[in-house]
Structures are given as C-alpha cells and as structure tokens.
Automatic annotation (TrEMBL):
It comes from the Eukaryota. This is leucine--tRNA ligase. The chain holds residues 276 to 528 of 1097 of the full protein. Belongs to the class-I aminoacyl-tRNA synthetase family. Transmembrane segments: none annotated.
Length: 253
C-alpha cells in the first residue's frame, strides 16, 4: 500500500430484492435500469466463497447511471473514478439517480457472481472506509479475517446491529487450502491471534497480512473452474473470466 495505484477488481452484484427502506428511498428513480452494488476487491479468486456483502451504515452512497441499461451503487468518490476510467459512460460524466445511506441498504438481497451461494444479503460492517474502494466490500469469511470477525460479531449480537439473524445464516465456505491453516485460513488466523471483535483493529491488520500472504503464496484452489491450481495462477484467470462474463471490471485508485 502507499505507492502507485491499487488495482482492484470491481465486482458487479445485481440487486435481487431491495430492503423495504431502500425500496422506499429509490421509488421509480432508477427507471428500467438494472442496479448493481459494486464491490472493490484485491482477491477476485475468493468470490466462490462470498457469503454476504458489507456496507458502512454511516456512509452515504449513490446510485449512478452506468449506461442506458445499468446503474451502479457505490460512493460518489468511486463513481467519479469509474467515470474517468471508462467504467461509467459517457467518460468523465456522472449522473446520480439516487442518494442513499448505507443503513437503508442493509437487508437487500443480491446476486453474488461465481459464488457457491448465489444469493446473499447486505450486512453492516464497522470498519468500512468511505475513502477506499467503492465503500462496498464482499464478505468472504473463509479467507478474510475482517469478514470472518464481522460475521461472528453480527451473529452474536443481531439486535445490536439491527439485522435479521437469517441474513447472516450462511456459513464460511472453503475456497482455498493453505499448508499452515487448512481450508479455513481466516478463522484459523483469527483464533491464533485471539481476536475477539471487529474493534481489535491492530490484531486484525496483522491477521489480514498473515492470511493474505499465506493465501497468495501458498494457497491452492479447492473449487471452481481452476480447482487444483495455485492462487497465484488462478487469481488472474478468475478475474478475466468474470470480466469476460460482464460480472466485473478493472477499477484502480
Ligand atoms: B478484500 P487495501 Cl477474501 N473499507 O476482498 C474497508 N475494507 C475494504 C474497503 C473499504 N472501503 N474496500 C475494500 N476493502 C477490503 C476480499 C478479501 C480482501 C479477502 C481477503 C483479504 C482482502 C473479500 N473481502 O483484503 O487496503 C477488500 O477485501 C486484504 C488485503 O486496498 C479488499 O480486498 O489493501 C481489501 O480490503 C483492499 O484493501
């Protein structure tokens, strides 16, 4: 981090069913356009194991026209970047159809590209930064310590987080095997570092580093088209396959 642009994959997750609060805010403002939540990820090869999607409840999002047929939900900052990178057309121009708070998006059901669980719910995460990526984060609790700990917190205190427990019902899915941690790298690292909650941000940063390196350098795919291949090989192939299928695009910042 810190030097040069970060190359993300923008994952397009079509809305299958809006939460009641989102439905009310949106009304007929998006017209006939299909709406996609767009998440920024550095690990497209983990999308098989997506179990939720996270937003920040205090973050302001927009729904932006991407072209005549589609609209993207992300932060205004990300939409501007997309417009300058050509992911939103016409290049350099943005049209915001709706402004919506993260808290209202929670409970929305979306289609998760390439995932073993094809439909998942939007949930709140404390540590989503408005200043990074799109403000939307795919949850892959098998391989991301932050995602695993957030899911654990949400399951422990659904009332506190104002969620329906059924939205957090999908268990982590094994996607990548690593020699040191097995089929569930993130839960193993979280346990090893004795992390208790999302608020343990220092230990979570360390866990993220360990899990990322172990997965990238030593991981093997357990599922999908590139099963049996190394993560280093599969990463680019999964990304290209998703882009080819119209389910993702390159996003840098
Ligand atoms: B990654 P970097 Cl399986 N706020 O995707 C907080 N976190 C954000 C974010 C935001 N606004 N936007 C993206 N992210 C997360 C998958 C994943 C990720 C796995 C394992 C590790 C991992 C599934 N979540 O990231 O600061 C996204 O989570 C560890 C590096 O730009 C994105 O990739 O390095 C990652 O942080 C980008 O973090």
């Amino acid at each position: 981090e810190g030097f040069g642009p970060q190359e993300y994959t923008g994952i397009k997750m079509e809305v299958a069913e809006w939460s009641p609060a989102a439905k009310e805010t949106i009304g007929d403002k998006v017209g006939n356009r299909k709406v996609f939540l767009v998440a920024a990820t550095l690990r497209p090869e983990t999308m098989y194991g997506q179990t939720n999607t996270f937003v920040g409840t205090g973050i302001k999002y927009g729904i932006f026209a991407a072209n005549d047929k589609e609209a993207y939900l992300c932060t205004l900052r990300a939409a501007r970047n997309m417009a300058f990178q050509g992911a939103i057309t016409p290049r350099g121009h943005i049209e915001q159809l709706v402004e919506i708070e993260g808290s209202k998006i929670v409970g929305t059901k979306i289609n998760a590209p390439f995932a073993i669980n094809p439909q998942v719910y939007v949930l709140p995460m404390d540590n989503v930064l408005a200043t990074k990526g799109t403000g939307v984060v795919t949850s892959v609790p098998s391989d991301s310590p932050d995602d695993f700990q957030t899911l654990t917190d949400l399951r422990k205190k659904p009332e506190f987080y104002k969620i329906d427990p059924s939205w957090a019902a999908i268990d982590p899915v094994p996607v990548i095997s690593t020699p040191t941690y097995g089929d569930m790298t993130a839960p193993a690292v979280v346990k090893q570092l004795k992390i208790q909650s999302q608020k343990d941000t220092k230990q979570l940063a360390e866990a993220k580093e360990i899990a990322y390196k172990e997965g990238f350098y030593n991981g093997t795919m357990l599922v999908g088209e590139f099963k049996g291949q190394s993560v280093q090989d599969a990463k680019v192939k999964v990304r290209d396959a998703m882009i080819q299928a119209g389910l993702a695009f390159a996003y840098a910042e």
